[in-house]
Each structure stands twice: as structure tokens, then as C-alpha cells.
Amino acid sequence: MAKELIKGNEAVIKGALLAGCDAYFGYPITPASEIAHAAAKYFPLAGKVFLQGESEVASIQMCYGAAGTGIRVMTASSGPGLSLKQEGISYSAGSELPIVIVDIVRGGPGLGNIAPEQSDYNQMVKGGGHGNYKLLVLAPNSAQEMCDFTMLAFELADKYRNPVVVLTDGFNGQMMEPVDFPEPVKTKPDKTDWAVMGNAKTRKNLINSIYLDPEEMERHNIKLQKKYAEMEKNEIRFEEYKLNDAEVVGVAYGTVSRVMSSAIDEARKKGIKAGMLRPITLFPFPKPKFLELAESSTVKAFTVIEMSNGQMVDDVRLVVEGRKPVYFYGRMGGVVPKVSEIVEQFEKALK
Amino acid sequence: MAQLKNVLEKPSSFYDVFLRKPDKYQQDTHYCPGCGHGILHKLIAEAIDDFGIADRTIMISPVGCSVFVYYYFDTGNFQVAHGRAPAVATGIKRNHPDSIVISYQGDGDLGAIGGNNILQAANRGESITVFFVNNAIYGMTGGQMAPTTLLGQKTMTSPYGRKATWEGYPLKVSELLSTLEAPVYIERVALTYGKELMKARKAVRKAIQTQIDGKGFSLVEALSMCPSGWRKTPVDAKKWVKEEMEKTFPLGVYKDITAEREKGSWDRRFEEVPLDKYHELLGLTGKAKEIGGDMSKVEEKYRNPEFLIAGFGGQGVLLLGKALAETGMRHNWNSTWIPSYGPEMRGGTANCHVKISDKKIGSPVVDNPDVLIVLNQPSLDKFEKDLKPGGLLIYNTTMIHKKPTRTDIDILPMPASEMADKLGSLRVANMVIIGAIIEKTKLFDLDVVFDTLNNIVSHKKFIPMNIDAINKGIEYVKNYKG
Questions:
Q1: Beta partners for B76?
Q2: Distance from CA of A25 to the nearest CA of B (A)
């Protein structure tokens, strides 16, 4: 039975171990705690390190240390915890450390609540910490993708020497679905050219984000920007649903994209030609596809639906640049938009 | 003579030329004349040389004047965020138990912003060595107050002198940490004169040796001079350490249980587990009964059904849903289960949504269920209106006395809790209802349902009772004349 009915949060940890994750450092928070529970259970069985840090601030720094030694490492949390982790995330981006960070978003701001929201888009996709950095952000919408994207996140983190985020809402973390688990990853990349492993071979290496000389700091920044441009070139991922003849393009990620796909089926029963573009990578954002749709003669409007005050919609508007109207509808506080609400928004967009 | 040579020679674990230093003075340090950092650096470097551990050593540079430790040490190097060195050290050491991890921190870094990080790392007994330089001031940022600034001491941010009633007392880190059980060795030394320096040298070596021996956490607090920050000459600065700082921060050993600790007793090592064992340890190798279900043979109103199940937390609502979702999966269909989660589950009402389909499931949210199962009155009151016209309502008459009011739905009242109680446990009320669902909908193969119990019932000894309960539910529907 490589297939199991499992919560998205637990699928993250099984996926992580199958991807060769060596260590987990984290701090409990609802609705992400099952990730820590599963890590605490399975990591020791696999001869790997699980440690509950004293805080989110410390946990991400433990990841910094572990990643700097060249191993695969992860942490997970939810909004308030991610706010605290931003310090370490900025340092990790600056020092170019591959760390996988899972964010199971809850309601905010402040303590908010534990219901599902998508209000961490800005802090994870736009860079919630200081400095000129980007994180590669993957947005799963099923338990299967919680496993698959966690595994992919480790690969991409190593490929680009950059923190990679798996961003989803509380619903997707708590939902159970059948998941097919793959075989464990057999080979991991050699990192002896940069990591500090406490051996002769890596003795001359340095993990560092300080460049006192402005010119040197700028050179480092330019190098980082080139890396982000590479990500934009190579790593864009999205899913299309009934876009061929769509007059209104629905845009959603995570749980909302699931609800939206049902809404599109409903809308089409009513004769509304709706389709969906679901960004899977939130950075890099699927700009070329949006541009293509914005310039298509069939498409009349975009309707962005989020469980937030409208964060991803900014990115859509930046690409569409007024070529077509971009409408937004959001629910907050943990309210999941209903199929009927989304259908209504499609109707409005075409009026 | 040998000793003199030792004093004058550059340890080999220092770089000959400081190529990482971005100015042209690459054979001088960036420290001010009379600063204590250089002395401590040298004591550490000599120890690394003498123990022959340069390859294994990883130095952690903090934020503060010693931010550039990595300019000088020819070892592995990390530069880290302000105060976080003990957390970073934890991440390194836990994964590389053979490395020698040295966290080098100042008083602002360790005592203020990283206060909790050092406390917790010490309390976990991380097998690392911490060198804590206490010069009672923030040097790098321009002479501000440190947690260790003396009472009455004037700094840029305590221009009228530190007052206990305003800024609190100087923080005594060695005293504080030595109250913890885990640390093995804590000593305070001074980087001043001959006798004190010899003690400092000994302490540095002991703290590193302790880590080599795998005995856990050690810390050496070094009182150090900051002539620039203090606006004193190097000579006066040394005197001030001796005459003023040592009064507040007495030198000496605060904790030493190195003799009692066995070698390697605080090393954390794990056995490598071969990859071919992974599926087994992740619980993915169990054999479960699966069949290919045929949704087209199911009565139309129950085809690709959507369930909403609600009741009190503790009535097995979530488990009921899981059983349906897992059984659906074992018929080779797609299924989703989402719970209400968090505080709601603890004592209040709980509900879950289940969808089973032979197609890809879009929204996992059930707004209008085909089958509504309610185990208590508030759930009936809340969800009755949402059931699809013609849908099936199963309600627990033991707990619900106000009857449903809709007339456009199929209603199955059943005393589920009472039936369960007769079987021996109220907890199997959910299974009685599963029996009813099986009989009403004809969705599932009964053998698959029974086999599913192996996965979802946590205590195997209760499986027979659960099977009885399912059978009772089936029987109830067969005999029900509504």
C-alpha cells in the first residue's frame, strides 16, 4: 500500500523523508502542527534529526546551520510563525542556503485564528524579510501535491541554493486524500564546493551574507537577481482548466483553485464560458501565460479569487497591465468562498 | 624558550594573509589597539592547533565586533544573525556530531538579543563550545549599553550612567547558566594580565576538550577590554577590568562536572537506515483489500456522493468520515475528507465533509450534501436546510428529540447511541451509522469496509465490536419501516 488516505500535513513529512530530508527543526502552531507531529514520529525511525526549537526564530536558524553543512533540512509553520522566521529567511536567502519552508496559512493579522486563509502571499512571495531577495514558492492544492511539491522543493532548493516555500492554506493541510508515495530519492547533489561540513575538503568554505564593501555587496545582489531570473526562465508551473474557449479567466491557487474548478463546471452548465489559470509557482509567477491570455481575443476578463484581501491579484494586474479588466473577489477570516459565490463573480465579470 | 616561541608565533589555524578582509591591510586585524578579541582569538587558535582539529572545526561569527572572526580562522566558517549563533550551532552539531562547533559571541549578541537562544542551547546541553566576550559595551555599533554594562557606567545609550531601577542590573551570564543541569563546564576568566591569561588559556582548552570528549555544553565568559568604547587607554582599560568589572563579575569556575560525565555521553548519533526500509518505516507497505468499484451501478442519487457528518466532539464524527473516505479510496475512487479543526474539536461540535467520486474531485467543501448525518440536536438545527432536495438524512434519535421539519428529503431516524450502548460502548454509534449508510446507498463492498477498520480503529481489540455495530446498522435499515 504505497497509497494512503492521509492528511496533507502528514504527506509533507513522508514526502520529505522520501526526498532525503536529513533534519527537521520547528515550533508547533495550529494548523501546521501535524507536520511537526509526523516529523517527530518518523524522523528518528529513519535515523534523521527532529528537534523542536525554542522558537520560530531559533528553528529557522537551526535550519540555517544544518543547510550550511550541505544536508537537506526543513521547517514548517503558519502565519505568525513565519513572521518570526523572516529574519532567518532573509539570512538564508543572502547566504544562499537551500531550506524547505512549509507555510500552512491561517487567519490574520495578529493572532487571527486557525481557519484557512491565503493572507501570507505577500510575506512569502514578495519577500517578508529585509533585502533584495526572492523565494521560490510552490502552491499545492491536494494531499498528493503536498507530498510531491515538498519533494520537488528539496530538488529546487539545491538546484538554486535558495530557500523554497511550500505555501498552502489550513484546509489543504488538514484535508485527507489518497496519496501515492513514490520510491525514496537515491542520489543527492554534492555540495562540497560551498558547504561547511567540518572536514578537510570544506575547511576553506564560508557561509556568509555580509559584504562590507558596497561594490561587493552589489555584485552579490546582482548574482542573486540573475539566479531569480533563471528561476523565471526555468521553473514556471501552472495548471489550466477549460481555458480554450474561456471568456472569463478565473485565477486561484490552493484550496480556492479546487473550489473554482467546481465553479467552472457549474458556470458552464449555465452557458458561461469560464476557465481557470491556476498558478502553481507563485514565484516565479506564470507571467507569459497571463500575457498570452490577456492578449487573446477570446478572453474578456480575469476574475481573481483569494482567501485574502487581494494579494495575488496585484501580480495579475502587473502582467495584464490594463489589457483586460481584472476583477477581484476575496473572503477573509477563514471563510472559504462557495462554488455559487464564484459562479456569481464569473457572471458579473462578463456583464 | 619554547614557551616564548609559542607566544610569538602565529598559530597555523590563523590564515597567513586575511584575504577576506576587504581592505589593503590584510595582515592586520580589524580590532582596535588594546582590544581583548585578538587575545582570545589567539588562545582559541593555539588550542585548535594543539588538538589537531582545524579540519573538523566550524567557527561561528556573531554580530558585533567579532562579526569578522571568519577573516582570521583557517577553519570552516559560518557568519550568522545577531544572537542566533547557539541555534545555528545546534543545527550544525546535531547533523555533524564529529565537527567541533565553536560559537563566539559578544555580550549584546549573547546576553540581550540572543538571550533565549543561549539559555535553551545550554539547557539542551548542545555539545558545543561557547566563548562569550563580556566587555560591558557594544563596541561595533558605537558604544551603546550592553546587558553587562556596569551600574553607573556611561555609554551612548546610558549617558547619565546605568541605573538599576531603570535599565536593571548587569546580567551575570555564567552565574545564570550554571544553575542549569545540562551544561558541563562554565568558567569566567579575564583577558588581562599574566596570571589571568594563563587561567584563560587553560579554560579555553578545557572548553574545547570537553566538546572533543562529547560531554556536552561548555561556556567560557571572558572579561575583555574595549578601550575605544570605554574612552580609555589600553593600559587603563586592563586596569578597569581588574578593578571594576571583576567586582561585578567575579572570576572563577561556576560549574564543572566534566569528571562525572562519561566520554561521548552527550553526543547525539543516529544509525543510518537503508533506503529500502523507508516505505516500511513510513507505514506504506501494509496489505489492504482493494477492489475496483463501479459508480455506474450505484443508485443515481448516491452516485459520486457528498457527505456532511456532524455531532459533538467525541461522538466519532471525524472517524466516521475517515472510514467513508478510506473505503471509497479502496474502491479505487477518489475521496476527500476535511474536518472542522482546532478548538471546535475540543468539547464543542465537530463536523467533516467527505466526497467520494470516480472523477477528479474539485472542491472538497460540501455545501449541499447528498447524505447528511447528524448525531446531536445543534447539528440538525444547523445543517438540515443544506441537504439537497431528495437527499438522505440520518439522525440519531437518542440525542435528538426535535424532529426534522423538511418534507422533501429521505429521513432515516435511528437510535444510534442507544444501539451502540447495547453493544457495549457509546463510541461505536458511528459504526452503527456506517452500517445504515452501507445498506441505504449500496455504495460499498462489505468486506472492504471491514478490512478498512484495521487502518482506522486504533485498538485492534475493538474491531469485532465495530463489525457488530456495522451489522446492527445494516439490520436496522433492513427492518426499518418508515
A1: B58
A2: 8
